[in-house]
Design a protein that fits this description.
- The complex is a heterotetramer, with two copies of chain A (145 residues) and two copies of chain C (83 residues).
- Chain A is of the alpha+beta class and 145 residues long.
- Chain A has helices at 13-23, 52-68, 98-115, 135-142, and strands spanning 2-7, 27-34, 43-48, 72-78, 80-82, 87-95, 118-124, 127-130.
- In chain A, a hairpin with a 2-residue loop joins strand 7 and strand 8.
- The model of chain A has no long low-confidence stretch (mean pLDDT 95).
- Chain C has one domain (10-77).
- Helix content of chain C is 27%, strand content 23%.
- Chain C is built from three helices and five strands.
- Chain C has helices spanning 7-13, 29-37, 41-46, and strands at residues 2-5, 17-19, 54-57, 60-62, 73-77.
- Chain C has a five-stranded mixed beta sheet with strand order 2-1-5-3-4.
- The model of chain C has no long low-confidence stretch (mean pLDDT 96).
- The chains are: A alpha+beta (145), C alpha+beta (83).
- Strand 2 (27-34) of chain A pairs antiparallel with strand 2 of chain B, so a sheet runs across the interface.
Amino acid sequence: MIRVLVQTEPFDLSAEMMRLEAEGTGGIATFTGLVRADDGVDVLELEHYPGVTERALTDLAQEATARWSLTAVSIVHRVGPMRPGERIVFVGTAAAHRAAALEACAYLIDRLKTDAPFWKRESRGGQARWVEQRTGDVDAAARWR
Amino acid sequence: MIRVLVQTEPFDLSAEMMRLEAEGTGGIATFTGLVRADDGVDVLELEHYPGVTERALTDLAQEATARWSLTAVSIVHRVGPMRPGERIVFVGTAAAHRAAALEACAYLIDRLKTDAPFWKRESRGGQARWVEQRTGDVDAAARWR
Amino acid sequence: MKMVYFAWVRERVGTGAEEVAPPASVVTVADLLDWLAAHGGGHADAFGERERLRAAVDGAFVPLDSPLSGAAEVAIFPPVTGG
Amino acid sequence: MKMVYFAWVRERVGTGAEEVAPPASVVTVADLLDWLAAHGGGHADAFGERERLRAAVDGAFVPLDSPLSGAAEVAIFPPVTGG
């Protein structure tokens, strides 16, 4: 199973876990990203490239499935305005053995950060600024090549 | 937050996730182990060393918290008889940044496999046998030293 | 040819999408940026620092020196920051 | 001194726990295993292959050559297989 969703609505974590378990035998690894209130951020807005984003995420999911023999992958990414504490992204992987699930999960979130067309804008008390790409994120994605 | 539970009852994954999210800012990584139906296993039974198990898991959680600056760790491990597809173990870590949460989660499940007193017995059609420790698990735990 | 813009590139250009008809001398994405910037205004402002720009041609991420070769949609945007 | 056994060690010994009173000559965990095995029966069977045994003294995992030094509880078991 490959499941890719890009949506403005909040998502149901337990429903996503259930889907992975239904396809999983062995181990399930997940990563959930939450909006941080860095230095007083009160709104985080996510913009994306409709259609292209979904294709990029599906490509990453397919690469991970082949590389780690996954039985299931879910990637859910929210777009639009969000508040601190809300979930931005969920990546879940299922595999027969734990190392495959854990590595694939780390791979997907690292690659997603540099290879999927999303852009973040932080607001602090009405002052908005576009988030710059972090060198650390580029390095994290590069270690998988 | 450090939460360690060893119990015979099934556990509620979404409740565990909610607890981590309540303490988390940034990223939450989880690993859930499911009973595999390897070569026709129909029952897996987990035995443990009451009291000592909980202490060993708490020690691992404290080590991981210090090493990766975690904001929360949950380890839930079932004991007693289980069927294929059921959850055996849940490890969840929360940290400000994803690499810390993901690495700590992998660390905890690797170390748990060699450092916490649990023993598995598989049954296939009434024939039971104790599971032998895997060399791969010993190697996986050793890479963190 | 359809142009699409995202994030601060969109804000500086002043629109998220527009139709353009570059001349035959516009061969690469970089040529296209030069030609659009020559119109002045928002485009010149948005495309001033090339090292801060990324592009996709028909949905595929490409370097700025890539040929357009009959592309239907060209996207210009800053480095991505999702996840 | 309380002995506790787990998994196939428990099954071979024939009990999960027992009280023992080893003589002063029993200094290490390995000495204790020798002394218990000398009783024959389940203990001898359970403790036959030392490389397959692990021990904990008062809840701390220790090598078999560790001293007992007044331990209240000694656990003998196979390598662990949780997770």
